[in-house]
Amino acid sequence: MALYIAGRDPRVPWYVKAAAVVIAAYALSPIDLIPDFIPVLGYLDEVILLPIVISLLIMMIPEPLMAEFREEAQRRLERPTSRIAAAAIIVLWIATITLTLWAFWPPPVL
Fold it and tell me: End-to-end distance of the chain based on CA atoms, in angstroms?
């Protein structure tokens, strides 16, 4: 969350923002250095490479700014949540799945 806040702050250097975009694109991309279908080795880039690169990115942000972004992230995490909204979303998902199954379920053969 702190890195997200840092990426939107104008005081952070442009090259840090560009590196953050590249890291996020790599993390979300289906193309990896080591393909995921290779047992054990496939996830090594996500488990080892991404944390190292993210820690380097954090070191590129000036420490006073990073402390400020961490405080803001902590403040945002303490916001109240709505259980009613969560319940409404769950009900919406259940209804969608139910209607999809009903629409595509084959009728019984007599």
Answer: 57
Domain contains 110:
no
Tokens 């080892």, residue located: 48
Q: Which amino acid is at 44?
A: L
pLDDT in tens, 41-66: 777 777 888 899 889 999 999 999 99
Among 27, 21, 8, smallest CA distance to 72 is for: 8
Model's pTM, two decimal places? 0.59
Q: What is the distance between the alpha carbons of residues 17 and 9, in angstroms, rounded to a whole number?
A: 9
Looking at the 3D structure of the chain, how many domains does it have? 1
Residue corresponding to tokens 């975009």: 21
Summary count for the chain: helices (H), strands (E):
6, 0
Instruction: Determine, yes or no, domain membership for 91.
Output: yes
